[in-house]
Amino acid sequence: MWQAKRTNTVYLYPKIGKAKLMQRNIVVIGGGVVGLSSAIALARAGWSVRLVDADPDRRAASWGNAGHIAIEQVAPLASWATVRSLPRRRFGAGGAVSLPPSAWRHWLPFGLRLLGAARPSVFARGQAALGGLLAEAMPAWQRLSASLDTPDLLRVQGHIVAWSSPASVEAGRRAWAAANIGTAAFRDATPAELLQLPGRAMAGAIRFTNTAQISDLGALNQALRAALVAAGGSILRGSATLALAGGEARLAIDGAPVPGADQLLVAAGVASGGVLAPLGHRVPIIAERGYHLRATDHDWPADLPPLVFEDRSMIVTRYAGCVQAASFVEFAGIDTPPDPAKWARLEAHITALGLPLRPPFTRWTGARPTLPDYLPAIGRSAKAGNLLYAFGHQHLGLTLAAITGERIAALAEGSAADLAPFDLQRFHA
Ligand SMILES: Cc1cc2nc3c(=O)[nH]c(=O)nc-3n(C[C@H](O)[C@H](O)[C@H](O)COP(=O)(O)OP(=O)(O)OC[C@H]3O[C@@H](n4cnc5c(N)ncnc54)[C@H](O)[C@@H]3O)c2cc1C
To answer: Which residue among 74, 137, 194, 320 is the one 20 to 30 A from 117 at the CA level?
Structure first.
């Protein structure tokens, strides 16, 4: 396919003299951080982009996460180490992992697939693939944030992991020293840094030096939307559905067919499985839900990077207008009602640690879009020739958003470099 340079126009079939003029246009389904980053990259590559999103109140995971650019999390969580640790990580045992009995239809088949993906050979392949993507994640974020009008959104000032007992300091340090952390680096926290931590004294901490945080998720949302519009894209509100016709996906928004959507990108987070189902894709995605509390009344140090209380699996992030404490991995359905015991546990952690956060707290729960091998799905549909997808980024959707956008723009232009491990066909889906 030959394409006219620097325009939105593609001439198809030039060699057979049947030049058909058509727009290089694409509709992106989903306005979370993955959909927006992809839409911006596509628009800047010359595509005419419309983005459709069903989340006017910004309840999606993209706007309630911990804000951490976690390039150190190279080991997929589908591993024997994770499986072995499950008994002590159960919510009932004081840990962060929750398998609500009412949601067994979701987590049982997912768990069986996870066990398969945790086999050492599959884990090793996944780690290599995820490591490759994570190695590019920070440079991609630096490029994206430098191109936005809002300064200081990306702060490359590391993060801190702290422990409350000498025994957990020793075990935690040893585990991080043995872990594959890719391009990330850490050192012991200095005594001064340890003293600076808010709340009761911690027994020890390490400081990652080249990880990052997003300083304000609301400002990020606005900056990404503004960048998309500035690049010529448009944003529609509504719920998208797909149908298959003649080997291609056809789009409807709020039930009304949308003509002229030549290419489509599904980036609908945890809803992506449902969006793709009418095309014949059977995607084994689960809602891996997390919970947060936010406080606007606090005495949190302004310049403290994200702080992980690893004994409690809780991360506390200072945002521009609040401080947020987040935790839990609850395997459920998209619509499973939230469990108030999770927010109560977060409050108990805050009290036990003596953190300077005061009620009222705002409560939120949101779903990480997770596939059983803990790799994202990024690729081109084998069922519909005009359909791309980018979802399933589990705990790393914020971290991987910018590099995913770049990869999607390249894929739309015909390059599939490095994307084979992320193809949905690995699930025969
Ligand atoms: C508590 C918690 C903490 C986290 N912390 C971090 C972190 O520190 N760092 C990190 O990298 N990641 C983190 N994550 C994970 C990260 O938030 C997710 O991986 C990421 O937000 C996924 O982004 P997304 O754009 O794919 O999906 P989403 O944010 O879920 O966005 C999907 C969008 O698609 C829309 N949509 C769905 N269906 C349709 C439809 N049919 N039509 C139109 N629109 C539709 C939705 O309304 C939504 O706006 C965390 C997650 C949680 C829950």
So the answer is: 137
